[in-house]
Structure formats: structure tokens, C-alpha cells
User: Fold these one by one.
Assistant:
Number 1:
Amino acid sequence: MSGHGDGRTTGRWTGAEGRAGGAAAERGGGAVIDVLVVDDDFRVAQVHAGFVAGLPGFAVTGLAHTAAEARSMAAELAPDLVLLDVYLPDEPGLALLPELSADVIMATAAADPGVVREALAGGALHYLIKPFTAAALGERLTAYARYRAALSGGELSQAALDGALRTLYAPLHAQPAAPKGQSPVTARLIAEALRAADEPRSAAEVADLVGISRATAQRYLAGLAEAGRVVVTLRYGATGRPEHQYAWSPR
């Protein structure tokens, strides 16, 4: 991806997960679904982009952090799907819905029933409430891909249409909660940093990756370790005390 002076990020996502997802899509030979991620928090946008790019058949074509950026990038890039936040700094994400020709899945912390009704009435295909895991978004996007494929052929029977809609709106499998008393968003960012790491990381390294203090990282890592989500080992240097290292548990 490439950055722009106005804060936009365009082009194919080039993280490790993106390379894996793109390679899988190429091997499968199917059409790639281009996704524009719109979120005011750049760290959350990057995490969601990593979620998307790790799925075979999907590619992240851009990241936008304001409604103005999203409007411009949607016109320029013509994505197939937009992951849209409600809370944007210049205007509500819902204001973009009538202008977007792409399919839209809301990905937002806005949980007010009126906002949900407005989004769905405005044309959003689905609504995913933050915080959510990579698995939850993966289920939604996989269902969307099947729904999209079902509607890409010839004339539909009622049974085929009903099946496509059931696929799109199938309930999610149960998702694990964040450790008690901790922010689910921060816990998710730390979890994704560890999942993407190619080797165990120290609390200081995790703090740098996520953009939080070392003390905060240590507190969250301890909670994840207690819940069995991370494995803790010790690294012994030439001198001084051993350092704790954290790796995501494959369970």
C-alpha cells in the first residue's frame, strides 16, 4: 500500500497476512473481492485490514480514516465491499451509505438500535459490532462471498435466494471474551500483534507494536496468559534478569 499526503492509504495490503491471503486467492483462481476499510482509528483500521487480507479471495485496496477520504477512495478505487465505521471525525459514516455503489458491512462500536435500523434501511448488508475477532469477521466475510457468488449467476429460484440470504445472515459461532476488567479493543490489538509475530515478543516489543505503554502491555499480557491465550517463556541474556517472552497459543 502507499500513503498519501491527506492520510489515505491505497493499493494492495502488503503485510504478511495480506501476502498469504493474496497467494491463496491466486492459487484458487477465483475473483478477488476488493475491500475498502473505513475507520477513524488508524490502528484499528490496520488490524481490520490484516483480518481481511488474511482471508483467501479478499484483498484490501485502501484504508480511509474520514468520511471525505472514504468518499474519494470509493470513487477512485471502486471497491466491491466497504467495511464502514459509524464514528468518523468529519461526518457520520451513515451519511456515506446513499453515495456508495459498493456493498457495505458496518464495522462499528455504535450499538444503538436506531443506528442499526438506519444503517440497514440505508443499504448496509450487515452490521458487526466492535469489538470482534478475526474469526468473527472471517465468518461474516466468508458468508458474504458465498452470498455474492450465489447472486452472480442467472435467474434465481426462491429456494436459491432463500439459501443465499440464510448464508449471509447465519449467526456467528461463540467468540471468546476479553479478560475481565480490560478493554476488548486493546486486548484484540495485542492478540493480533502476537498472532502476526514470527517469534515470541517481549512486553516492550508488544507495547511498541500496539502503541501503548509497557506497563499496560504487561497487564494485558498477564491477563491473556492467565486465560490460556498466550504462552509465556523466559529469555536469558548475557547479564541481568531474564525477560518474559509472549507467543500466541495455537489452541
Number 2:
Amino acid sequence: MTNQAQGAQPELPGKPTSASRTTLSHIMTGSDTNLLGTVHGGVIMKLVDDAAGAVAGRHSEGPAVTASMDEMAFLEPVRVGDLVHVKAQVNWTGRSSMEIGVRVLAERWNESTPATQVGSAYLVFAAVDADGKPRPVPPVIPETERDKRRYQEAEIRRTHRLARRRAIKELRAQRATRRTESAAGAAGAGGAEGAAGAEGVEGR
């Protein structure tokens, strides 16, 4: 057995989606409003991050930090007196990262009408150890057809995230190269003009 094989960490046993699925409920009050009198988007985003963080911690069985938030969509305004339910679950797992899908629903606190979806988001969390270094997470096991669809969609989003990051990095590298070449060209032109001026003085 090689040293690399000896040092390899055994794969963690998978965990079903339902093992960490979480719902966070909160009644909106006057302190949550914006200048328009509806609930501030930042309040909803904090609830989303809290619920997603609980799911990530449960699934990974330890600390997890928010790495990114994708596609935070506000579909309907939330009002004071709404009972907001934030439903979160693990959609996909990598080696140390997890995509958490979140749905936000709202209903009047004193009415029996069905809750309406008012928002959705996808967040990427990274599991970390006591030193803040990445640590492995258990693979998620989709249980239902909906879970399987969400897993596949999460893989598409991850591919797009990586492609976007790579394209932006390449674009910035190209612009930096062009700036360097432009600066070198300007310096060369300045040196040539100086040399020509010197020759003119000496020829007098």
C-alpha cells in the first residue's frame, strides 16, 4: 500500500436529505420594516442564511460557513403580521461544500389561508474544522424525485458558477496583459523621443 493510499481519508457514509431538512418560522413585526412599510429584504436574507446554516451544520455535523448566495429572489412583498416559514434542505454536496436550497413562504398570523411562496435562494456552505480549514462532508442521498431533480439542478448551477469564475479570471488576466503592453509601449516611445532630442542637440 502506498503512502498516498494510507493517508487517504475514508469516504463518509451518506445522509438522506430528510436528515437535515429544517423549517424556521418567524412573525414579522414593525422593527422589520423598510421605508415602504414592508419587511426589509435584509431581514428575509438573514432568516434564509440562518436556516441554511442550520441545515449545513446538521448535515456536516459541525461548523459550516456561508461561501456564497446565489439567485436570491423576492417574489412577493412580506408584511408586518406575516408568519414567515423558511424551509431549507441540502440539494447537493461536494468534498467539503454543500448547496442549500431555501424556500420562503408567508401567511397571515391570524388567518387560515394557505401560505404563499414569497422568495427563494440557493446558498453554498463550506464545512470547516476548528482551525477554519475545509473538512469533508457526508454525501447527500436524494430520496424523492424532487430531491433528485434539485440535485441535478444544483450540479448545473455549480458548473455555471465555475465557468463564470473562470471566464472573469481570464478576462481580468487579458486586461492586465494589455495594460502592461500599453505601458511598455508608452515607455518605449518616450525613450525614442528622448534619444531623438539628444541627437538634435548634439548636431547643433
Number 3:
Amino acid sequence: MQNTILAILEEAKRQGVRRVSKTALVKWVYLVDCLHAEESRGQTASGAHWYFHHYGPFSVDVVGALDVLSARSMVQSSTDGAIGKDSTIYWLSEYPVGPDLTALGLSSSLASRFSSLFKKYAGDLSQLLDYVYFKTAPMRDAQPGGELDFQILADEVQRSSHRHTHVKDHAKMLRMLQLSETLKRRYEQQSATPKALAAHRPIYDGAFARAMEEADAESGSLDLPVKFEAVLS
């Protein structure tokens, strides 16, 4: 869980985001867990217990891990009443260096998705909260006070991998078949052109001619009568 927090703060530092509020950081951990669950059969990266608190996902485990990291000076924190209710902000100094997102078990494509989300929402907390509350699967059918189910993410990925694209418009289907036949005929015509045939014509160079002469000489020598003597007893 602590590594998840450190990886997120390292990503923030890499993108030039100097400070991350507690509310935002908790939500970023949640999004990492959502991405991780997609390819890990519903298992989260942080291992935190998430439940629907007030308006969205919340984890006492994550807040506790933040307090531990701050107390050990592994992350820097400060309280600024000027920014309102969400007054605690966190950041990483030069050392320690947080782990890479892929070290949490995210594939490179999922790590890239998280980086894109962070770039898009890091500067706008309200947009981040809207995305978390209304566009993530565990929150879709969640009940206030209830535990969030991340298995739904793995199930959705599995269903989408087996989903086929169907063409309901028969005119479009006919057009696709016509295009397929056109491409097939064009390929066959191009394959029979003199240029295409010339590309596959054998090349008879000097080395080939010398090799044939040597082969003829050898075959000629095999046609000569072979002298032998037989002794009858």
C-alpha cells in the first residue's frame, strides 16, 4: 500500500505536479487499484479495503498508510488552512525515489493510462472527483456505506474481449463484401502481370553456366564404359 502511494507521488513529481492534496491522493490510489483489478482478476494493487463514504470511494487503510509515511518522513506533508477543508498536501522530495507504476503490477499500457488520467485531472480536483464518482465501475452500483467490488472490472474486461462487432446495416455488409471481392481480383491481376512474373523468373548468370558445364562433364564421364575383369572359379 505504501509503495502505491510512493509510486503515485513519484508520477506527480515526474509530471511537474508539486503538491497533491489528501483527497486527490486517496482517489489516485483508488484509480490505480481500478486499473490493476482489470488485469488481475479483481485484485487491487494497494490491498486496501474500499467503501462508499459520503459521495465516493474512501479507505481508512490508505489514510493510515499516508500518516505512517509522513511520520517516517518518507513523504513530505504540510497543512495549509488557506486551501480549505482539504488542508493536508503531500509530495516527494528528491529522495527517496518512488517506484515505477509497473512495479505495482500494472502493465505498461495500464501505467500509460494512469499517466494520461493524472495529466488530465491533476490540476482540477472537481473533474477528478466527477470521473471517480460517475465513470468507474465499482462506484456504479455501490451503496452508501457498502464495500466496493473490484471484481466487476475484471468481468467487464473479459466480456469485452469476447464481444464481436456486428454489422446490422445490410447495405454496409454488401458493400464490405464487394470491396473484399474487388481487392481479391486486383491482387490476382497484379500477380499475373509481366512485372510480377519477371520478379520470380530464375536468373542465369556466369556462375550458373559454369556450374552446369561442370555437371555435364561429370555426367559425361559416367557414360563411359567401365573396364573390369572377372575371375571365374
